[in-house]
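Example 3.2
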Amino acid sequence: MFIPHTEEQKKEMLAAIGAKSFDELVSDLPKKLLRPPMDLPGSMTEMELVRHMQGLAEKDRLALSFLGAGAYEHFIPTSVWALALRGEFATAYTPYQAEASQGTLQSIYEFQSMVCELLGMDVANASMYDGASAAAEACLLAMRHTARPEILLPETVHPQTRQVIQTYLAHSGAKIVTLKCPKGVLEMDTLKKALGPGTAALLIQTPNFFGCLEGDARRFSEMTHAAGALVIASSTPVALGLIAPPGEYGADIAVAEGQPLGLPLGYGGPYLGLFACKAELMRKMPGRIVGQTVDADGRRAFVLTLQAREQHIRREKATSNICSNQALCALAATIHMSLLGKEGLRTLADLNFQKAHYAAGQLEKRGFTLTFDRPFFNEFAVRCPVPPEKIVDKLAGKRVLAGLPLGQYFTEYKDHLLVCVTEIKTRQDIDQFADLLKEASRP
C-alpha cells in the first residue's frame, strides 16, 4: 500500500482521484466530523500526563453486565496474560521451522491435548478463528465426508453462527434446513421428520442460544447416525464442567467458542475456535495439527504433523482456506485451563449454574416469567411486560447492561429478554439487577 508523504505525492494522488484538494475529497462528510474541536490541554511532563490519564480512566466505570449471547464475562486470573504476553509468545509467528519453534509448538500441542479432553474427542486442531467459523468448517467437513448436501440447523443454534454458516456454504451446493424449536429445544419428532438420504449433518448446540440444555443428545446422535449423517456438537467450554462432553453422546465433530477460557470481552474479539473430531475424520479436518515425535538424538520434539491447507503443498486439494490459527488466544486458553484443572472447571461451572438459577428465581419473585420451562446453564430468557428495548435503554443510563432483546433475531420473542449470569456476579449484584429490572418494566 502506497502512503503519500510529500506534498507533491499528495497532489499527484488527489489528481489521480479527480479531486482538487483534500477538503473537496471529504466534502460529502458531515461538517461536524471534518474538523471537530480538540479540547486538549497544554504540554505536560510524563508525571503530569500519567496523573491526567488516571483521572480520565476513573471516569470510565465498568458497567454491571448481564449480557451474554455468545460473549461472556468471566474472571481471568492475572497470571494468564502475565504469562501469555511474555515476549517469547507475543512476538512468535507461525512455527514453520520446528527447530526454531519448539516452545510454540509444545504450547499448541498442550492446547490440542486439553481440547480433546475437554470435548471428549480423539483429535483437535491448533485452533480456528472463532466458534462460528469452526461450526461452518465442521459443516463443510461433513459434506465432504458424506458426499451429501444437507445441513440441519435447529433455530436454537446461535443466530450469528447460523449466519456465518450460510455465508461459508453459500457457493458450496449446500442445502441448509432450519429446524423450528418452539419449546426452546430441538424435539425428537422434528428431527425425525427432517432426517433423510440427503442429510450430511445435524448441528446441535447445548447449552443453546437461549441457555437451555438440549434434550437427549445421545438419542439425537443415534437417530442421525442411523440416517447415515454426522453429528456436529457445539457447546460453551465452561458448561462442560457439569454436562457430558460431545464425545460421550456420540458426536463426530465438536466445536466451541473458546472466549470464556481466559479471553476478555472486546469489540468483536479476538476470539478462539475450538475444533475436534473422531480419529477417522482427522485427515479431513481444517487447519493444522501439532504432533509429538523424537529428534535425531531420541529426545522428545514437536512438529507440524498435518497441514491440510491451501498455503502448503495441498493447494487445491486443501480441506480449507483457513490460513492461520489463533495461537496467542489458544495459549491464553491453555494457561487458563491448566490453572483451573478438572476440579476448578467443575467448580466454575457449578457457580455459573447456581447463580443463574438464583437470578431466575429472584426475577420470578418479582413477577417475571421464564420463556422456556427447560433446564438451563448461566443464561435464560424472560418475558417482559414492556418492550425489552425500553428496559435496556433505561438500565443503560444506570450503567447496567440488562441483556439481549430477542426480537432482533426472533419476531415471536419480541417481548423477551435474554439474561446472562456468570460467576463474577454477587448476590448483591443479582438482587440489585432484579429490582432495577422490575422498576424499568413499569409501563
